[in-house]
Write a structure and sequence with these properties.
- The chain has 732 residues and is of the alpha/beta class.
- 30% of the residues lie in helices and 12% in strands.
- The strands form eight sheets. Strands 2-1-3-4-7-8-12-11-10-9 form a ten-stranded mixed beta sheet, sandwiched between helices. It has a three-stranded parallel beta sheet with strand order 21-22-24.
- It is globular and about 75 Å long.
- Iron/sulfur cluster is lined by residues 248, 387, 444, 449-450, 453, 455, 458, 464, 466-467.
Length: 732
């Protein structure tokens, strides 16, 4: 892995003398109180400003403040004119713009493209406080406000839209957001390294136009620079004969086409068979001077197969240890993408998480509830990144698949800070986790192998033999946290990678005995191999193995507790029959889905490329390569969701009609083995969970199943209280 300059190793900007602000200012009055005549950097964000390390504007703002800069925040501005973007005056260095913690379109619209009425990142939970494609609109307004101030775009929306991307809401391929936003620079992935480097250089008087060498950045250039070797993407991923690949550099789903992998099962090589390969550097192929040319926007826009190919190549070039620069032409402009950022070290993660966050929303919001804050205010993020590689998820694309861990000491300090300073703390830490609950300190056995690997997942199709699955550091952390005075309970609410957990029975025992609050969320996502393969998720057998362990240790601990499995309807690669089989499995196992999660094609995800192109980008893509069935029409999407909620009488007419057409009338009847009954209730007495906004109440119940996957708290309707009139758990 290339070395990177530590975040804490930069000289401080002169304004360091002002010291840290209690909150980053949101008004001129606050700036006056701090004695500031101006801000050096202004962050514009689509979320309410919560000064907490789970919120992007706080992390970046506090980090820049620690570098000595004066940072102001413009949160959820009125985007109809430039006025709100001028409220803090002109920044001395630049505007940093982000849509917020979510893509603004996903925040605003449901998977069925309906407008949401709520927004978890807004005071009062009300929708409508940010524009569609917020980072683009904000950039344009900032440009109108102060024409000569550089605009640096960041956050997940910009990150996932940096390349020509399929946009589900417009059902077309859009060009890189960099061009539409007319920003000077786009930072993708976790942006700490890049933003510090950019801020330092601008403060020294460097022009943003000259900053072409910073990892994790994308920018526009007119021509290819001198001294670079350009490689056409079709040359590195051309359909046809597959070159011999030697483990572990093989791609997960290409093993069936790999002669080396196939030969492994038949015979073990004798010593005399062994050939020593000497890899000589190609003078023209130095990695750090090679750029891969992706098909142009104009080509991928009209050709879904080329789009899938470009998506595949992008995903192959995401390991910071071996990724090369990419370039994609848009008209007469080149959009250039430097390799992704180098992951933060533990010392750097601690540095970022130990910054002086107030840990509460800015006082300007008064008593208004911000649902996303309520969800995380007693939880602690212990790591970043995910090596699962689930194709429908953007975490690996954004945070990378190399886990970045905090130290035990830093995490314990944060728990103590919550205990001592956060209003309303009752002794329960609601989560010690991250993108996945149990990847903390789990990593490839060899740094060299890790730096060379191009597999998109370390756990699919099985746990990689090079993965060190030792959970002992995580177990040690749980134990230390439990011992803290004033902490009554530590819950684990992040999704568990159960196929990884079963590798460490001691971990499962620890988790089940001490850290499950009645329910444990896990995400098999499906029961059938067709869709599971396209998701890069393990088979349902892994779920069964984990369930056995979970029940055994729950029993030993004398606890009544249940698994909450999550499933996705309408994922690419899912047939009607797959959904029927899932419904039968649910019925057999006594599960009733409370809410339904339908596949949501987010920008840049591999599953989205499948959805758009009907091709599988997990394998080499060509016009003749494997086709993937997609669920697009309104009726079929409704049907797949209906199978997940086979118990809802509203769905029975559609399911009856479909089962008959599938030749499965045998599943319609009034006894236990049937999926749905023959009769239809006269009155629709069933109230859907979504309408009720229900969540499990009181003590755990077997068979309760949630399929909402946002990680956010359920919406409040104010209608329902538990028997004793107390708010329901999870409905804070
Ligand atoms: S553990 Fe992960 S990084 Fe290491 S070789 Fe396996 S897939 Fe690659």
């Amino acid at each position: 892995m290339p070395a990177a300059r530590p975040l804490f190793d930069y000289p401080k900007y002169w304004a360091e003398c002002f010291g840290p602000a209690p909150f980053l200012p949101m008004s001129r009055a606050e700036m006056d109180q701090l004695g500031w005549d101006s801000c050096d950097i202004i962050i514009v964000t689509g979320d309410a400003y919560v000064d907490h390390p789970s919120f992007g504007m706080a992390v970046i703002g506090r980090l820049l403040e620690a570098q000595g800069f004066r940072v102001g925040i413009i949160s959820q501005p009125d985007w109809q004119s430039k006025d709100a973007f001028m409220q803090l005056g002109k920044p001395n260095l630049f505007f940093g713009i982000a849509a917020g913690n979510m893509d603004s379109m996903i925040n605003r619209y449901t998977a069925d493209r309906k407008v949401r009425s709520d927004d978890a990142y807004t005071p009062g939970g009300k929708g409508g406080s940010r524009p569609d494609r917020a980072s683009l609109v904000y950039s344009q307004r900032c440009r109108e406000a102060f024409k000569d101030v550089p605009i640096i775009l960041g956050g997940i929306e910009a990150s996932l839209r940096r390349i020509a991307h399929y946009d589900y809401w417009q059902d077309k391929v859009r060009r890189s957001i960099l061009l539409d936003a007319r920003a000077d620079l786009l930072l993708f992935g976790n942006a700490e390294r890049a933003i510090v480097e950019v801020a330092q250089r601008i403060s020294r008087g460097d022009s943003v136009a000259d900053m072409t060498d910073i990892r994790g950045t994308a920018f526009i250039r007119k021509d290819s620079p001198q001294g670079w070797f350009e490689l056409d993407s079709s040359r590195i991923d051309r359909p046809g004969k597959v070159d011999k690949i030697i483990n572990p550099y093989v791609n997960t789903q290409d093993t069936s086409a790999c002669a080396v992998e196939q030969a492994k099962g038949d015979s073990q090589a004798t010593e005399s068979d062994v050939q020593v390969l000497e890899l000589l550097p190609h003078p023209r192929l130095e990695r750090d001077r090679t750029v891969i040319r992706l098909p142009a926007y104009e080509k991928v826009k009209g050709d879904p197969v080329l789009y899938a190919h470009a998506n595949r190549v992008l995903h192959l070039e995401t390991n910071p240890g071996n990724a090369r620069a990419l370039v994609q032409r848009h008209g007469d402009q080149e959009v250039w993408f430097n390799p992704p950022p180098i992951p933060l070290s533990t010392e750097e993660m601690d540095y970022v998480f130990d910054l002086p966050y107030a840990r509460v929303p800015h006082p300007v919001y008064g008593d208004a509830k911000i649902p996303a804050y309520d969800m995380i205010r007693f939880s602690v993020n212990i790591m970043r990144g995910c090596f699962g590689g689930c194709t429908f998820c953007s975490i690996t694309e954004h945070e990378g698949r190399i886990i970045q861990n905090r130290s035990h000491d830093s995490i314990i300090r944060e728990i103590e800070a919550i205990r001592d300073t956060v209003p309303g703390f009752t002794g329960v830490i609601s989560d010690l986790g991250g993108p996945t609950a149990n990847m903390y300190r789990v990593a490839c056995k060899s740094r060299e192998i890790e730096a060379s690997c191009r597999k998109p997942s370390c756990v699919y199709p099985g746990i990689c033999e090079n993965l060190d699955t030792d959970h002992s550091s995580l177990i040690g952390l749980y134990r230390k946290a439990r011992e803290l005075p004033g902490v009554k309970k530590i819950l684990i609410a992040s999704g568990l990678r159960y196929d990884l957990a079963v590798e460490s029975p001691e971990y499962v025992r620890e988790l089940v005995t001490h850290h499950v609050g009645g329910y444990l969320k896990i995400a098999p996502e499906h029961t059938e191999n067709g869709p599971l393969d396209k998701m890069m998720k393990p088979g349902i057998g892994s779920y069964d193995r984990f369930k056995q362990m979970f029940e055994k240790y729950s029993k030993e601990a004398g606890k009544e507790q249940y698994l909450i499995p999550y499933f996705i309807a309408a994922h690419p690669g899912t047939t009607d029959e797959d959904m029927m089989n899932l419904a039968l499995w649910l019925k057999r196992n006594g599960f009733r889905a409370d809410q339904v999660q339908a596949f949501y094609p987010s920008p840049m995800a591999s599953a989205t490329a499948m959805y758009h192109s009907g091709k599988n980008p997990l394998r080499k893509v060509s016009y003749k390569s494997e086709s993937v069935g997609t669920v697009k029409g309104e009726r079929q999407r409704r049907l797949h969701k209906a199978f997940l909620r086979y118990h809802d009488p509203n769905n029975w007419p559609l399911l009856r009609e479909t089962l008959k057409a599938m030749g499965r009338s045998d599943l319609i009847g009034n006894s236990k083995q049937h999926l749905i009954p023959t009769f239809q209730p006269a009155v629709d007495s069933y109230q859907s969970a979504r309408r009720k906004n229900s969540t499990p109440a009181g003590s755990p119940k077997a068979g309760r199943l949630l399929t909402q996957h946002t990680g956010l708290p359920p919406r409040e309707t104010g209608k329902r209280k538990s028997a004793k009139g107390k708010p329901r758990p999870g409905a804070r």
